[in-house]
From TrEMBL:
This is Response regulator FixJ. NCBIfam families: PRK09390.1. Keywords: DNA-binding, Phosphoprotein, Transcription, Transcription regulation. It comes from the Bacteria. CDD domains: LuxR_C_like, REC_FixJ. Residues 135-200 form the HTH luxR-type domain. The gene is fixJ. PROSITE patterns: HTH_LUXR_1, HTH_LUXR_2, RESPONSE_REGULATORY. Residues 6-119 form the Response regulatory domain.
Length: 203
């Protein structure tokens, strides 16, 4: 799995950290180790990857870590590790947005499968975030009139209706529409609407 994004392991147990470092490295997954949630939060942030954390740790526990990540807008998926007695905490972690939880002692393949799923989920989320940001930049580059035409197109208005609404000729609407398609790099009207809806879900 070369080129993989990293997994951040947060656990106060040295033996667990070392075991997980070996497990992930053997699967070709880069790993960063942290002995506490505080140390993890102080480390340089990663834009992608996933986080594997114990739910019960001194200082900041896994639940509070999830809350801090959410407050910071960190969207990386989080897998929570828990002992049998801590399942209620793990359920609480899921309510706070954890991607999954794994009970200790866990099977290596079960954890690896969960991490692979989390990395795939995180990658898709990062790609979508990048696509939304790029679409937002393209919309921002439109002129005011082009944005008006885009708004009308998203409302489902045909060219004649757009022309009447904006006080311009249907031919001029066609020119603006072509400009919008070119600037948005949309191959079809359907693609244009899908792109715009990513940025403005409400239309």
């Amino acid at each position: 799995m070369s080129g993989e994004v990293p997994v951040d392991v947060v656990d106060d147990d040295l033996a667990v950290r070392q075991s997980l470092a070996f497990l992930f490295a053997s699967d070709g997954i880069p790993v960063r180790l942290h002995d506490s949630a505080t140390a993890f939060l102080a480390a340089p942030p990663q834009a992608a990857g996933c986080i594997v954390t114990d739910v019960r740790m001194p200082g900041l526990d896994g639940i509070e870590l999830l809350r801090r990540l959410k407050a910071q807008g960190d969207g990386r998926p989080v897998i929570v590790m828990t002992g049998h007695a801590d399942v209620p905490l793990a359920v609480a972690a899921m309510r706070e947005g954890a991607f999954d939880f794994i009970e200790k002692p866990f099977d290596d393949e079960v954890l690896l499968a969960a991490v692979r799923a989390a990395l795939d989920s995180g990658r898709r989320a990062a790609e979508r975030h990048a696509a939304v940001a790029e679409t937002g930049r393209r919309i921002a580059a439109l002129s005011e009139r082009e944005r008006q035409v885009l708004d009308e197109l998203m409302a489902g208005s045909p060219n004649k209706v757009i022309a009447q609404a904006l006080g311009i000729s249907p031919r001029t609407v066609e020119i603006y529409r072509a400009n919008v398609m070119a600037k948005m790099q949309a191959g079809s009207l359907a693609e244009l609407v899908r792109m715009a809806l990513m940025v403005r879900p409400g239309g």
